[in-house]
Specification:
Layout lengths: L4 H13 L3 H9 L8 H10 L5 H12 L3 H50 L6 H4 L23 H11 L4 E6 L20 H14 L4 E9 L14 E4 L16 E7 L17 H23 L9 E5 H15 L3 E4 L4 H11 L4 H8 L1 H14 L2 E4 L2 H7 L8 H12 L11 E4 L33 H7 L9 E5 L8 H9 L2 H6 L1 E5 L11 H16 L6 E2 L9 H10 L3 E4 L8 H8 L4 E4 L4 H8 L2 E4 L4 H13 L1 H14 L5 H13 L27 H10 E4 L20 H21 L5 H6 L11 E5 L6 H14 L1 H6 L2 E6 L4 H10 L9 E4 L4 E5 L8 E4 H7 L5 H17 L8 E3 L9 E5 L8 H10 L4 E6 L4 E6 L4 H12 L6 E6 L15 E5 L5 H8 L16 E3 L6 H13 L1
Parallel strand pairs: 1-2, 1-5, 2-4, 5-6, 6-7, 7-8, 9-10, 9-12, 10-11, 12-13, 13-14, 16-17, 16-25, 17-18, 25-26, 26-27
Antiparallel strand pairs: 3-4, 15-20, 18-19, 19-20, 21-22, 22-24, 23-24
Length: 1049
């Protein structure tokens, strides 16, 4: 009964406080003996035992019911609710314990197996769980937030950055984002994160060494929101950047760039954005490439200026940043803000929703998978506090603090980690603006000189509202500023104040608990907390000593801090756990010493500011003692105040940006490899993939001709099915091909681009008007041949004209493709390119058939090799295969390593019994626990497994073609079946067009998608104009009709 949810919440609170559940159960068992009395039970066991005002209100209503039978029925029902909640909570506790035990066993197993590979002697730091002075992210605790004694150090650092011209991309997708008049609190998606990313972009844009910052978000042109959210670009005006105005350039500064994706006329919540993420990635990719070219003209000597880092905020932006990082081959940073696994645990503990209901409402499993991918791809994960690392990130498969310490220790010793990687956790607290804050230096007896902005009068409206509560308003004020939430622990603070007579004599207590009109109009939880506070004030007779004003404006909060400082008071945050503690920093900026919980972010803040005391929030006496110590010891109060004011700049935006940029500087620079001249001598030519001779020569050196080239890698370890004796012939062929291509380019270098194409400039797909990608995962080779023939027949005229090109995208190797083409009566020249091994290899049709049918793009390998585990990954997979085969009966080999189908960047395995192989999500989880970052693809109805680099895929290969050759994604059309390999979802979204050929692929392929972490429906674009479906028994005419619909759209 939804209307009675409030009853559940209060009964749940009673159980948390803790009546003996066995006693409750035994009391309820009396009913079976005919002696159960609900009236007696509630009076003796509930009403007198617990201070729950709303439950008492329900009891009063029941007592007022005239009919005794109805009254007893009401109360009996409430009794059974308590008992049922008790059973549910016990079951949830059991399930939680089981999940923790399973997680612990998985981690221990992963650590053991990782240690088996990393078999060298461990250092002392690696042996223990605590590494002397090394923190969980591999740094000294003392150096986490280094103190600066003077702003001179900041000026020195700023002067060192001059000359650098960095380009940084930030991503925050959900909510309504604009630079001024932010609508914070308008909805659950427009909150603190929106303010943080806007201020971060603004601060970075004003930081020395940063030329441009782009904050990418969603463009919303909906009548439900302000028109400003539909503007493509908005410049963020800098704050206090007069010193750097001389460094401003034509495109410099910070900008909000709004990318259109998803429904054009709707503002939708973040849970519904997942199907549209690929469309954002494609739009953002287009913007970044264009901006890199613009910046190259301005500051890069006509060489593209690529982002030094792409920083995703929250899971949806993290997923996008990972794909962009892979498409551009640039470093990625990630900030979670709030994490899905932690939220899932909290929701499961409440017991009101099942796991399926939670996922339906919050799309939580898709969110968690995005966060796992962000861990796979990120160089650095930025957190606000140590608590976020220790309590939240350790819940993820991709982060294990113990294994992370071992890997860091090995890196410091320059010892191989065997392909394992953990992102670096960096604690960088959010920045704040302090330039407008003037600390209060006066007191209630001696007034300071006021200014127009900060008058000295004690009669400010909010001051009068607070001081009217006090009989002696000149006593030091203990200030607490928090909403009336049980987690904020305000009642314990009032009890501590009420039971300490000395504290009452020395100080007043001010509780700023949000805004309210009437208690009855508040939410049940908030009103319960407030009523408890009022009852405690009455119990301890604290009238004239405690203030609890009903209203305050947001702009009056600084005045409240000033009043507390003016009385030489103390700020307190007694929350049971505080993720960060922004109010503590604000209070310190106004010169207030602090008393704060020792759980969570305040520990990090206190370590930097050293301006107060930490307490156990459950220990009422500890809270009273800390407050009494600060208000009674003037020397201690002054020292804490001075420390806070001296160190507060460490939480300023300039300091935040300095730490942020130093973290980026520690990342290994990465960017598209073909933008560099191999010999470094060519600097005057354009580096873009245009018509330059140097571009053609670079291609020649990094594309290798192949007859059926398997196991081709950037290392040059090229093995085909030819014998080793043909190596000399292959080398001679390659050299002749290079010379031939170079001669052709020289001959046409003076002609127009079209003339260059006419002589066979490589690759042919660059001159096509449209590209058709055949990514159909058929159950048999015959079905694939038949499908390709139907597509070719539908586009016969355009094929003959040469205006349309074709790409074959498949899980097969190039050798398998060659055999398949021959057996199907097809020619390699029918296709411009071949995306092989699920996206880990890229081949083109050869310009000169005499040199072989295919040529491999080695630049693509250098583009996707980031985080590739290599031999360490292969050994781990072999162990996994052995463990699967041990479970088989009659010594049957369920999975076998397919060496002949593997390549340098793809480890392939044949599956004989797909039903006995763990689902793809289990293998991904197992590899992540061992810090191996890769993309696992189950292919061909689960009979083949390809393990490839983490940011390689068939969809990412299409983005590479756009980045490398300028082939617009919007001019690509992708053919897929009803379902396909486990990477099927990536082929549907984006700005490219998709044709779903109904009836293609078996139910076994559908089962592959049922075994991923989230339903495929969570990521499928609904009613997208870029997707059409054919009839089940489609013909070539049906295909052509579908394509005409897409071309018209």
């Amino acid at each position: 009964m939804a209307g009675n949810d409030w009853i559940n919440s209060y009964l749940e609170a009673i159980l948390d406080v803790g009546p003996n559940l066995d006693d409750v159960k035994s009391s309820l068992l009396l009913r079976e003996r005919g002696r159960f009395s609900p009236t007696r039970y509630f009076v003796e066991e509930v009403i007198t035992g617990f201070d729950e005002t709303d439950l008492h209100r329900s009891w009063v209503k029941a007592q007022a019911t005239r009919s005794p039978q109805e009254r007893n029925t009401r109360l009996e029902n409430m009794c059974w609710r308590i008992w049922n909640l008790a059973r549910q909570k016990k079951q949830l506790e059991v399930e939680l314990a089981q999940r923790k035990a399973k997680r612990r066993l998985e981690l221990e197993r992963g650590r053991r197996e990782a240690a088996a590979d990393m078999s060298e002697d461990l250092s002392e730091g690696e042996k223990g769980d605590i590494v002397s002075d090394v923190s969980a992210h591999g740094e000294s605790n003392k150096s986490r937030l280094p103190r600066i004694n003077s702003v001179d150090a900041m000026e020195i650092w700023a002067s060192q950055q001059k000359g650098k011209k960095l380009y940084i991309v930030l991503i925050s997708l959900h909510g309504l984002i604009r630079g001024e008049n932010m609508e914070l609190g308008r909805d659950s998606d427009t909150g603190g994160q929106v303010k943080y990313v806007v201020e971060l972009a603004r601060a970075l844009g004003s930081t020395p060494g940063v030329y441009r910052v782009d904050l990418l978000t969603r463009q919303v042109a909906s009548p439900d929101v302000d028109w400003s959210y539909g503007e493509p670009t908005e410049m963020l005006s800098p704050r206090n950047s007069e010193d750097f105005m001389d460094e401003m350039g034509e495109s410099s500064g910070a900008y909000i760039v709004r990318i259109p994706f998803g429904p054009r006329d709707k503002y939708i919540p973040k849970e519904l954005l997942w199907p549209h993420i690929p469309e954002f990635v494609d739009g953002a990719l287009n913007h970044i490439i264009q901006m890199a070219g613009v910046l190259g003209e301005q500051i890069g000597g006509r060489n593209p200026v690529w982002p030094v880092a792409i920083h995703g905020h929250y899971a949806d932006a993290g997923d996008s940043a990972a794909l962009l990082s892979g498409a551009l081959n640039v470093p990625m940073l990630f900030t979670g803000h709030s994490l899905g696994r932690d939220k899932l645990e909290q929701l499961l503990k409440q017991g009101r929703l099942t796991r399926d209901e939670i996922n339906t409402t919050y799309k939580i499993m898709r969110r968690i998978e995005a966060e796992e991918l962000s861990l796979d791809a990120s160089e650095i994960v930025i957190t606000s506090t140590r608590q976020e690392i220790d309590e939240q990130w350790r819940l993820y498969d991709g982060f294990d603090p113990v294994l992370e310490r071992k890997l860091r220790a090995r890196i410091r010793r320059n010892v191989s980690c065997y392909g394992r990687f953990m992102p670096r956790m960096a604690i960088i607290p959010p920045g704040m603006e302090f330039h407008h804050i003037v600390p209060q230096d006066g007191d209630m007896d001696g007034e300071t000189e006021g200014t127009e902005e900060y008058p000295s009068s004690p009669d400010l409206p909010i001051w009068s509202q607070i001081m009217r509560f006090f009989s002696n308003p000149r006593k030091p004020m203990i200030l607490a500023l928090a909403r009336p939430d049980p987690k904020k622990n305000i009642t314990t603070l009032v009890k501590a104040f009420g039971e300490c007579r000395q504290l009452q004599e020395l100080a007043n207590l001010t509780l700023i608990m949000g805004n309210r009109d009437g208690i009855d109009e508040m939410s049940s939880t908030s009103s319960s907390v407030l009523l408890s506070v009022l009852k405690l004030i009455d119990k301890y007779d604290l009238y004239g000593q405690v203030a609890y004003p009903k209203h305050h404006k947001q702009y009056e909060v600084p005045d409240i801090y000033r009043l507390a400082a003016k009385t030489k008071g103390v700020f307190i945050n007694p929350a049971f756990i505080e993720p960060f503690g922004l109010t503590l920093i604000e209070a310190a900026a106004y010169g207030l010493p602090i008393v704060a919980t020792k759980n969570g972010g305040p520990v990090d803040i206190h370590q930097v500011l050293d301006n107060g005391l930490l307490v156990d929030p459950h220990d009422q006496q500890s809270i009273a003692d800390a407050l009494l110590k600060l208000v009674s010891d003037r020397q201690l109060w002054t020292r804490c105040r001075q420390n806070g004011l001296k160190n507060i700049h460490l939480f300023s935006w300039p300091e935040h940006c300095k730490t942020y940029l130093s973290r980026i500087a520690s990342c290994k620079p990465r960017h598209p490899q073909w933008q560099r001249s191999d010999d470094g001598a060519e600097t005057s030519e354009s580096d873009s993939p245009s018509d330059s001779l140097r571009d053609m020569q670079d291609i020649s050196l990094n594309l290798k001709f192949s007859l059926d080239g398997d196991r081709s890698g950037a290392s040059g370890n090229y093995n085909s099915f030819d014998s080793e004796g043909n190596a000399a012939d292959r080398k001679s062929k390659l050299e002749n091909a290079v010379l031939s291509l170079s001669r052709e380019q020289k001959a046409g270098s003076g002609d127009k681009a079209e003339d260059c194409y006419s002589i066979g400039k490589f690759p042919a797909l660059r001159r096509r008007k449209h590209i058709f990608v055949i990514a159909v995962d058929c159950d048999s080779i015959e079905d694939l041949v038949d499908t390709i023939r139907k597509i070719f027949e539908a586009l016969e005229k355009e094929r003959a004209e040469g205006s349309f090109g074709f790409i074959l995208s498949t899980f097969m190797t190039i050798s398998e493709i060659h055999s398949f083409l021959i057996s199907g009566g097809l020619n390699p020249s029918d296709f411009d390119a071949f995306i092989c091994n699920s996206g880990s290899d890229l081949f083109y049709s050869s310009v000169n058939p005499e040199d072989g049918p295919f040529v491999i793009d080695f630049y693509y390998h250098s583009h996707i090799e980031h985080r590739w585990g290599g031999e360490g990954l292969r050994k781990t997979l072999v162990r996994w295969v052995e463990s699967i085969n041990k479970k088989a009966e009659n010594e049957e080999q369920i999975v076998t390593a397919a060496e002949q189908l593997s390549a340098n960047y793809c480890y392939a395995f044949q599956v004989k019994n797909a039903g006995l192989v763990p689902p793809v999500k289990e293998l991904r989880k197992w590899l992540r626990i061992q810090a191996l970052r890769c993309n696992v693809v189950y292919c061909r109805s689960g009979t083949r497994i390809n393990v490839i680099p983490v940011l390689a895929s068939r969809s990412q290969a299409l983005r590479y073609l756009y980045v490398r050759w300028g082939i617009e994604l919007s001019k690509m059309m992708v053919f897929v079946g009803d379902s396909g390999d486990s990477d099927y979802e990536g082929l549907l979204g984006g700005v490219h067009k998709s044709v779903i050929l109904k009836g293609i692929c078996s139910s076994a392929s559908n089962q592959l998608h049922a075994n991923i972490n989230y339903p495929l429906s969570d990521v499928m674009p609904v009613d997208s104009p870029n997707i059409v479906r054919t009839s089940r028994d489609f013909t070539s005419s049906d295909i052509r009709d579908s394509l005409e619909k897409l071309l018209k759209s």
